């Protein structure tokens, strides 16, 4: 088992790793804490020293395009109300079992996983046994997961360290909970601030088995293993790099353009004061008098002239608009600004607007399906073990159906046009019925209405036979009491 000193060393080393540094940047931008927040203004004073300018306006507004794009892709992938994990038709009874595992709670946790994977470039699901003795899964923040291998080249992890800040104690000291998992048990630790890592005394069983069962007759508790490591990692791409990377520079430039424009509007709205023959001692006094008293003293030859300055609005606005277009373009996202009036936008134009988002979703879904198959394999093994069935992976399919905006008015108009077209075709067929015969007329009608001709013909023949039999009975007189038939 890992020593507490090793646990601390592994956590510290993981936090400063290149992968976690990039992940932290993605998390920061998702929370709208952009680099613009640290933007500062400087100037050279009369002595030639570089000093920070704290008098000029310095707006630092984040524009969370990244947040929108991450949530947009997650919602798009999970937009279908139907369970994406589907049993094939020949696997009787399997869908009911799958719905019990892949329920709303699972997809809620899975949505957190998709969001976190885009933000960080990777993220995790954690497996456990729920109160119904069924394997369930919940989201585990990848920033607090440390994979521990005997050798860096090993594919299999020997341990998973999972840590999180439980609460803030006295003097703003964070209380960190630490779990060390293997395939059989869990060790629990606690750490106050940056102090020593100690075993968590609040846990009755430490280490604790992955699963604890209670004998209902004796009340005796005994443990069991899951039989596999409980953490499952989903990667956004092969290098585990956040979706932020291709658009970060564009977002930073957009923040700079928009904040620069705000600063210009605040600093230059009252113009530039040109003062001749100022009677005061220094410029600070001049600025103070202008702001408060709206008056200054000048000599007899002195004067004050206010000159307006043209703000470079058009240039900044053009650059910001270009950045915004490229943010959606290279972020492969849907720019909803172009779909404000869907009643005036055709469905073809809407589909074109979704093209990049759809391409990104399809690419990501390949990794998602590979990840879900690991989960499904565990679920099927448990279903077979409990129910004595023999379901296989080939009995399950994974299908993500995406829903997008549509122009309902255009759909209604198209349906009306198709209905009118069919009506015209039917009228033409019926007007020609006397020339082409009953059977060809029926076949033409079935083609227009997309009906099964053979089935309709069989039904029509059966109705004809019934009519014939009815005509024969009509020609006979039947006495209900005697049951005798008398030919009329």
Detailed description of the structure:
The N and C termini lie far apart (103 Å). It contains 14 helices and 19 strands. The chain has 488 residues and is α+β, with helices and mostly antiparallel strands. It has three domains: 4-45 and 57-243 and 357-398, no CATH class; 272-307, no CATH class; 410-487, no CATH class.
Number of helices: 14
The strand count comes to 19
Domain count: the total is 3
Helix vs. strand class: alpha+beta
First-to-last CA distance: 103 Å
Give the rounded overall mean pLDDT.
83
Could you state the oligomeric state of the chains shown? Answer: single chain
State the shape.
Answer: flat
| Helix residue percentage | 40-55%
Q: Low-confidence spans: pLDDT under 50, at least 5 residues? A: none
Q: How large is the radius of gyration?
A: 37 Å
Largest sheet data? 6 strands, antiparallel
Q: How big a fraction of the residues is strand?
A: 15-25%
List the helices and strands and how they pair.
Blueprint: H1 4-15, H2 18-30, E1 42-44, E2 50-52, H3 65-77, E3 85-87, H4 94-101, H5 104-120, E4 122-129, E5 135-140, E6 145-148, E7 159-168, E8 174-181, E9 185-192, E10 197-199, E11 208-209, E12 211-214, E13 221-224, E14 231-235, H6 248-268, E15 272-278, H7 283-292, E16 298-307, H8 313-330, H9 347-353, H10 355-387, E17 396-398, H11 408-431, H12 433-436, H13 438-449, H14 453-474, E18 476-478, E19 485-487
Antiparallel strand pairs: 1-2, 3-17, 4-5, 4-14, 6-7, 7-8, 8-9, 9-10, 9-11, 12-13, 15-16, 18-19
Helix pairs in contact: 2-5, 3-5, 6-8, 11-13
